Amino acid sequence: MKGGAARPAGLEGAGEVVALGAGVAGPAPGSIVMGRCAGAFAEYALMDVREAMPVPPTLAIEAAAAVPLVFLVVHDMLVAQGRLRPGEWLLVCGVSSGVGVASLQAAKVLGARVIGTSGSAAKLARLRELGLDVGIETRAPAFADAVLKATDDRGADLVVNAVGGSVFAECMRCMAFEGRLATVGYVDRVLGAEIDLQALHAKRLTLFVVSNKLRSADQRAAGVPAFRADLLPAIADGRIRPLVDRVFAFDELAAARTCMEADRHLGKIVLRIAA
Question: Mean pLDDT, to the nearest integer, of 225-243?
Answer without folding.
Answer: 97
